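At this stage, I needed to go through a protein sequence along with its fold in token form, as given directly below:
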Amino acid sequence: MSENSYFWFEAISMVAITAILLADLLIVFKRPHIPSTKESSLWVAFYAVLAVIFGLIIGQLFGATKATEFFAGWLTEYSLSIDNLFVFVIIMTRFAVPKKYQQEVLMVGVVLALVLRGIFIVVGAALIEQFSWIFYIFGAFLLYTAYHQAFRSHEDEEETESKLIQLLRKRIQVSDGFDGAKIRTLVNGKKVFTPMIVVFAAIALTDVMFAFDSIPAIFGITTDPFIVFTANVFALMGLRQLYFLLGGLLDKLEYLKYGIAFILGFIGFKLVAHAMHVNELPFINGGKHIEWAPEISSNTSLIVIVASIAVSAIVSVITANRKKAKSN
């Protein structure tokens, strides 16, 4: 397909995706409610099927390699998005956000994530275009993130949020209770912020942290900015409904973080290997390419990602069932 055709495909895709997101946004703010399990399941399935269809269209138009890159990127970002939900649960519980208004909070979180990831994608693509050695930095960062992912605890996240909350409460006046989904309310005739502003700030901080993880991860799979962005968008679509669908099940997926850590570590290694293969740094191998460095294919990446998610999820379910059987 010609470059002009690819441009039009990108343009039409972005218009369609934006329309879907806007429709989802309007539904949330027009009809705030607690989604049922059936409603959440249907929406999650709808967005997953949409992603699969989109990937198949890419494969039909641009070849199997592009499609594989999209699916690998989408699954990687989706697994990281599920991990994101663990933090969202902590935030919602910590601030006792009424369930009726949790949809608004989650939608704001999704929109913020899209904006931040869009910015990071543009910056990342520009850096990659100019400096091939940036893959060394991305790879090292992901290896560190993989270690942090495997050995972090929820207490670490709560400590970070506590510092943010303390900082905000020192700077602004916050009411004791919520006033619906409003950010500001009247207390004794004076306009003050509600705890919702602190919730949004915590969500924004979480989005920034996960954007730092997710963008280098997907650039380890593909350097096509369009595929990078659409994989992120499809991973975030349905995240709100997935939150209500999984609910208390998130705590049972205790080994998922190890699967995600393995994926991040694998992609980190892949990035470093690629950086070695295209090496131009004068103090490494005299500025020459390191030919023996492995080039890991998109198909291999997809297999590793699917296997890591599947194994960690299955082990989590088996462990949870054993614990439940023992307690009974």
Remarks:
- DSSP finds eleven helices and two strands in the chain.
